[in-house]
Amino acid sequence: MAERAADNVVFIGRKPTMSYVMAVLTQLNDKGQTEIKIRARGKAISTAVDVAEIVKNRFVKELVYKDIKIGTEELEGENKEKLNVSTIDLVLGK
Amino acid sequence: MAERAADNVVFIGRKPTMSYVMAVLTQLNDKGQTEIKIRARGKAISTAVDVAEIVKNRFVKELVYKDIKIGTEELEGENKEKLNVSTIDLVLGK
Protein backbone atom coordinates (compact mmCIF):
# COMPACT_ATOMS: atom_id res chain seq x y z
CA MET A 1 0.00 0.00 0.00
CA ALA A 2 1.39 3.40 -0.99
CA GLU A 3 1.62 5.56 2.09
CA ARG A 4 2.69 8.72 0.27
CA ALA A 5 1.80 10.20 -3.07
CA ALA A 6 4.28 13.05 -2.83
CA ASP A 7 6.91 13.99 -0.33
CA ASN A 8 4.84 16.57 1.47
CA VAL A 9 1.70 14.43 1.77
CA VAL A 10 1.09 12.04 4.65
CA PHE A 11 -1.79 9.59 4.21
CA ILE A 12 -3.41 8.49 7.44
CA GLY A 13 -4.33 4.82 7.79
CA ARG A 14 -4.66 2.37 10.66
CA LYS A 15 -1.25 2.66 12.28
CA PRO A 16 -0.91 4.24 15.72
CA THR A 17 -1.37 8.02 15.74
CA MET A 18 2.21 8.68 16.84
CA SER A 19 3.70 6.93 13.81
CA TYR A 20 1.97 9.51 11.59
CA VAL A 21 3.11 12.31 13.89
CA MET A 22 6.66 11.04 13.34
CA ALA A 23 6.11 10.92 9.55
CA VAL A 24 4.95 14.54 9.54
CA LEU A 25 7.87 15.66 11.72
CA THR A 26 10.32 13.84 9.44
CA GLN A 27 8.92 15.68 6.42
CA LEU A 28 9.14 19.01 8.20
CA ASN A 29 12.55 18.55 9.80
CA ASP A 30 14.66 16.31 7.59
CA LYS A 31 13.23 17.30 4.24
CA GLY A 32 12.81 20.96 4.99
CA GLN A 33 9.20 21.17 3.85
CA THR A 34 7.45 24.34 5.04
CA GLU A 35 4.03 22.94 4.25
CA ILE A 36 2.60 19.50 4.85
CA LYS A 37 -0.66 17.94 3.74
CA ILE A 38 -2.36 15.33 5.92
CA ARG A 39 -4.96 13.27 4.03
CA ALA A 40 -7.45 10.74 5.33
CA ARG A 41 -10.77 9.18 4.57
CA GLY A 42 -13.52 7.45 6.52
CA LYS A 43 -12.77 6.50 10.11
CA ALA A 44 -9.16 7.68 9.76
CA ILE A 45 -10.37 11.30 9.63
CA SER A 46 -10.38 11.49 13.45
CA THR A 47 -6.79 10.25 13.51
CA ALA A 48 -5.79 12.84 10.89
CA VAL A 49 -7.15 15.62 13.09
CA ASP A 50 -5.32 14.16 16.12
CA VAL A 51 -2.06 14.01 14.14
CA ALA A 52 -2.37 17.63 12.99
CA GLU A 53 -3.22 18.89 16.48
CA ILE A 54 -0.39 16.94 18.17
CA VAL A 55 2.20 18.18 15.66
CA LYS A 56 0.93 21.75 15.93
CA ASN A 57 0.49 21.95 19.70
CA ARG A 58 3.34 19.80 20.96
CA PHE A 59 6.11 19.86 18.38
CA VAL A 60 6.07 22.69 15.82
CA LYS A 61 4.22 25.53 17.47
CA GLU A 62 4.55 27.99 14.58
CA LEU A 63 2.38 25.82 12.33
CA VAL A 64 -1.07 27.05 11.35
CA TYR A 65 -3.85 25.57 9.24
CA LYS A 66 -3.35 26.95 5.73
CA ASP A 67 -6.29 25.03 4.34
CA ILE A 68 -8.89 22.50 5.48
CA LYS A 69 -10.87 20.70 2.79
CA ILE A 70 -13.66 18.20 3.27
CA GLY A 71 -15.15 16.12 0.47
CA THR A 72 -16.59 12.81 -0.64
CA GLU A 73 -15.00 10.12 -2.81
CA GLU A 74 -16.87 7.39 -4.59
CA LEU A 75 -15.33 3.96 -4.19
CA GLU A 76 -16.32 0.65 -5.71
CA GLY A 77 -17.23 -2.07 -3.21
CA GLU A 78 -16.56 -5.79 -3.45
CA ASN A 79 -19.71 -6.41 -5.48
CA LYS A 80 -19.16 -3.39 -7.73
CA GLU A 81 -21.61 -1.37 -5.66
CA LYS A 82 -20.80 2.30 -5.17
CA LEU A 83 -19.71 3.46 -1.74
CA ASN A 84 -19.32 7.07 -0.67
CA VAL A 85 -16.55 7.85 1.75
CA SER A 86 -15.75 11.22 3.32
CA THR A 87 -12.29 12.71 2.95
CA ILE A 88 -10.26 15.40 4.69
CA ASP A 89 -7.18 17.33 3.57
CA LEU A 90 -5.41 19.32 6.26
CA VAL A 91 -2.65 21.65 5.11
CA LEU A 92 -0.31 22.82 7.87
CA GLY A 93 2.28 25.48 7.13
CA LYS A 94 4.68 27.86 8.81
CA MET B 1 -26.88 14.05 28.29
CA ALA B 2 -27.41 17.39 26.59
CA GLU B 3 -27.42 16.88 22.85
CA ARG B 4 -27.72 20.55 21.94
CA ALA B 5 -26.34 23.72 23.40
CA ALA B 6 -28.24 26.02 21.07
CA ASP B 7 -30.84 25.43 18.42
CA ASN B 8 -28.49 25.65 15.50
CA VAL B 9 -25.80 23.38 16.97
CA VAL B 10 -25.85 19.61 16.56
CA PHE B 11 -23.42 17.66 18.76
CA ILE B 12 -22.26 14.40 17.27
CA GLY B 13 -22.02 11.40 19.58
CA ARG B 14 -22.36 7.64 19.23
CA LYS B 15 -25.76 7.35 17.59
CA PRO B 16 -26.05 6.17 13.99
CA THR B 17 -24.93 8.75 11.42
CA MET B 18 -28.40 9.11 9.92
CA SER B 19 -29.95 10.20 13.22
CA TYR B 20 -27.64 13.24 13.18
CA VAL B 21 -28.43 13.85 9.51
CA MET B 22 -32.10 13.97 10.52
CA ALA B 23 -31.32 16.35 13.39
CA VAL B 24 -29.52 18.73 11.01
CA LEU B 25 -32.34 18.54 8.46
CA THR B 26 -34.92 19.26 11.18
CA GLN B 27 -33.01 22.37 12.21
CA LEU B 28 -32.74 23.54 8.63
CA ASN B 29 -36.28 22.74 7.52
CA ASP B 30 -38.60 23.05 10.50
CA LYS B 31 -36.77 25.76 12.37
CA GLY B 32 -35.77 27.81 9.34
CA GLN B 33 -32.10 28.06 10.28
CA THR B 34 -29.91 29.18 7.38
CA GLU B 35 -26.75 28.12 9.16
CA ILE B 36 -26.01 25.03 11.19
CA LYS B 37 -23.01 24.09 13.30
CA ILE B 38 -21.96 20.46 13.62
CA ARG B 39 -19.65 19.83 16.58
CA ALA B 40 -17.74 16.72 17.55
CA ARG B 41 -14.70 15.53 19.42
CA GLY B 42 -12.45 12.50 19.38
CA LYS B 43 -13.60 9.50 17.36
CA ALA B 44 -16.92 11.22 16.56
CA ILE B 45 -15.07 13.66 14.26
CA SER B 46 -15.30 11.18 11.36
CA THR B 47 -19.05 10.90 11.91
CA ALA B 48 -19.38 14.70 11.96
CA VAL B 49 -17.70 14.91 8.55
CA ASP B 50 -19.98 12.14 7.22
CA VAL B 51 -23.07 13.96 8.53
CA ALA B 52 -22.04 17.25 6.91
CA GLU B 53 -21.23 15.60 3.58
CA ILE B 54 -24.46 13.57 3.49
CA VAL B 55 -26.62 16.63 4.28
CA LYS B 56 -24.76 18.74 1.73
CA ASN B 57 -24.55 16.22 -1.12
CA ARG B 58 -27.82 14.36 -0.76
CA PHE B 59 -30.35 16.66 0.86
CA VAL B 60 -29.61 20.39 0.80
CA LYS B 61 -27.41 20.95 -2.22
CA GLU B 62 -27.09 24.71 -1.83
CA LEU B 63 -25.18 24.33 1.45
CA VAL B 64 -21.50 25.25 1.56
CA TYR B 65 -18.90 25.16 4.33
CA LYS B 66 -18.90 28.62 5.88
CA ASP B 67 -16.25 27.68 8.41
CA ILE B 68 -14.23 24.66 9.50
CA LYS B 69 -12.43 24.87 12.84
CA ILE B 70 -10.16 22.29 14.39
CA GLY B 71 -8.87 22.47 17.94
CA THR B 72 -7.97 20.65 21.12
CA GLU B 73 -9.86 20.51 24.41
CA GLU B 74 -8.38 19.48 27.71
CA LEU B 75 -10.53 17.05 29.66
CA GLU B 76 -10.04 15.56 33.10
CA GLY B 77 -9.82 11.77 33.21
CA GLU B 78 -11.15 9.45 35.92
CA ASN B 79 -8.02 9.83 38.02
CA LYS B 80 -7.85 13.60 37.53
CA GLU B 81 -5.23 13.17 34.83
CA LYS B 82 -5.39 15.56 31.90
CA LEU B 83 -6.51 14.23 28.54
CA ASN B 84 -6.32 16.12 25.28
CA VAL B 85 -9.08 15.52 22.78
CA SER B 86 -9.36 16.95 19.27
CA THR B 87 -12.47 18.88 18.28
CA ILE B 88 -14.09 19.96 15.03
CA ASP B 89 -16.70 22.62 14.30
CA LEU B 90 -18.27 22.51 10.86
CA VAL B 91 -20.49 25.44 9.90
CA LEU B 92 -22.78 24.80 6.94
CA GLY B 93 -24.78 27.64 5.46
CA LYS B 94 -26.80 28.59 2.42
Count up the helices of chain A. Answer: 2
Q: Radius of gyration of chain A in whole Å, from Cα?
A: 14 Å
The separation of the N and C termini of chain A measures 30 Å
Largest interface: A-B, 19 and 19 residues
Question: How would you describe what is shown here?
Answer:
2 copies of one chain form a homodimer. Chain A is α+β, with helices and mostly antiparallel strands. Chain A has a single domain (9-93), classed as Alba-like domain (Translation Initiation Factor IF3, 2-Layer Sandwich), CATH 3.30.110. The first copy, chain A, contains 2 helices and 4 strands, in the order βαβαββ. Chain A has helices at 17-29, 44-59, and strands spanning 9-11, 35-41, 64-76, 82-93. A 4-stranded mixed β-sheet of chain A has the order 1-2-4-3, covered by helices on one side. In chain A, helix 1 links the parallel strand 1 and strand 2. In chain A, helix 1 (17-29) crosses helix 2. The first copy, chain A, is elongated, with a radius of gyration of 14 Å. The relative contact order of chain A is 0.21. Residues 1-5 of chain A have low confidence and may be disordered. The A-B interface holds A 42-46, 49-50, 52-53, 57, 65, 68, 70-72, 84, 86, 88, 90 and B 42-46, 49-50, 52-53, 57, 65, 68, 70-72, 84, 86, 88, 90.
